[in-house]
Amino acid sequence: GKFHPVAFFLIGRESTDEYEWAMKQLMAVYETVLGSCLQLHYVMADAALTPVGALKTLQSQLGIKVILMCFYHFVACVNRRLGVVPISVKALVARYLFKMHVSRSVGECQLH
């Protein structure tokens, strides 16, 4: 099987330094437990600038190829941008967002 690390941290302030500290702690625990450096190809993060900034700082060290926005925050951002668009249009957009979200390949996603 594969190991998929999931971590939750309670931090005092929402700053890039705090997020960097949390990620470095995760890296240290991973190395202690598994004896190798943590490498993450895909990372899902909040839409806020501070966690993304911390991930970008550690991107090369962690081997991150893609930083994904949390799906909830993605939908919330799209809905904010749609503003006063008619509800039927919002429903259509939501339908395609969810189809893209559950796609199992790049080709399938591009169909939507």
Automatic annotation (TrEMBL):
Domain of life the protein comes from: Eukaryota
Name this protein carries in UniProt: MULE transposase domain-containing protein
Species, as recorded: Aphanomyces astaci (Crayfish plague agent)
